[in-house]
Specification:
The protein has helices at 13-21, 70-74, 83-90, 102-115, 137-146, 174-183, 196-202, 210-221, 226-231, and strands at residues 35-36, 39-44, 55-60, 65-69, 154-157, 169-172, 186-189, 192-195. The chain is an alpha+beta fold and 232 residues long. Residues 1-9 have low confidence and may be disordered. The protein folds into three domains: 5-84, no CATH class; 92-171, no CATH class; 185-231, no CATH class. A hairpin with a 4-residue loop joins strand 3 (55-60) and strand 4 (65-69). The strands form three sheets. The protein has a four-stranded antiparallel sheet. The protein has a two-stranded antiparallel sheet with strand order 5-6. The chain has a two-stranded antiparallel ribbon with strand order 7-8. The protein is globular. It binds zinc ion. The site of zinc ion (ZN) has 7 residues, from loops.
């Protein structure tokens, strides 16, 4: 059965996938044939990386082709070849009834931090991206209201090295945010640069426990070394 257009000459997705996977030891997630916003995944590329995952060839509805890694697709970070971003940038992004609200300002501030190329945010937010679907303030605000937003909370990225997308964001109290920033902070332990949270977890100390709070207090308030904080 012909699929139509260019696809007639291509092997069926499952066959292409088997050919690609032959002799490879990789996670076997197959996105060929799946749609993410404007992108239709049509093939897997040879650039696929065992740790970083696969790189997929996608057709955008506007006619462009683009190569996108798995996580950017599954987290809906990339949902077009870039045409969506351009369109949204041209449009005046306002949501009736929300302009001037705290949530709208929060969305606006997130965008300003990430789009800052030369100012005070440029260094910290250089590689931090906002997922395509949140470029629309309405989608962001709907997500916020459905995911525990209230006026006492601020937007927090769970993993500070990663961007703004639903799976990496939550509404947190300022206290939780400070703790999260600490978790993502690097400290020196046994002469190695390590993540604070990682070292604690290796010692069986989980977030939220008394031991955790004690270690946090010692390292961040008393400025003890990590070794001392863990031994005493
Ligand atoms: Zn496009």
């Amino acid at each position: 059965m012909a699929v139509g257009g260019d696809d007639v000459s291509r092997p069926l997705p499952i066959l292409r996938w088997r050919l690609f996977m032959k002799g490879r030891k990789m996670s076997a997630v197959n996105l060929i044939g799946e749609r993410f916003g404007r992108l239709l995944v049509v093939d897997v590329t040879e650039k696929s990386h065992p740790k970083k995952g696969h790189i997929w060839l996608c057709h955008c509805d506007c006619g462009n082709d683009i190569e996108v890694p798995t996580s950017r697709l599954t987290h809906k970070i990339t949902t077009s070849c870039g045409c969506l971003r351009k369109e949204l940038a041209r449009k005046k992004m306002t949501v009736h009834g929300y302009e001037g609200t705290r949530l709208y300002k929060c969305w606006d501030a997130m965008k300003r931090r990430c789009n800052d190329k030369t100012g005070k945010w440029s260094k910290t937010y250089k590689n931090i991206i906002i997922c395509d679907e949140w470029l629309d303030p309405k989608v962001f605000i709907d997500w916020a209201l459905a995911n525990g937003y209230n006026n006492n909370l601020t937007l927090d990225r769970i993993d500070n090295t990663k961007g703004y997308y639903p799976e990496n964001c939550r509404w947190a109290t300022p206290k939780e945010q400070a703790r999260n920033r600490a978790n993502n902070k690097y400290i020196t332990y046994n002469d190695k640069r390590r993540l604070f949270i990682e070292v604690l977890e290796e010692h069986g100390i989980m977030p939220g426990t008394k031991e955790y709070q004690r270690a946090y207090y010692r390292v961040y308030k008393l400025h003890w070394s990590m070794e001392r904080a863990l031994s005493a």
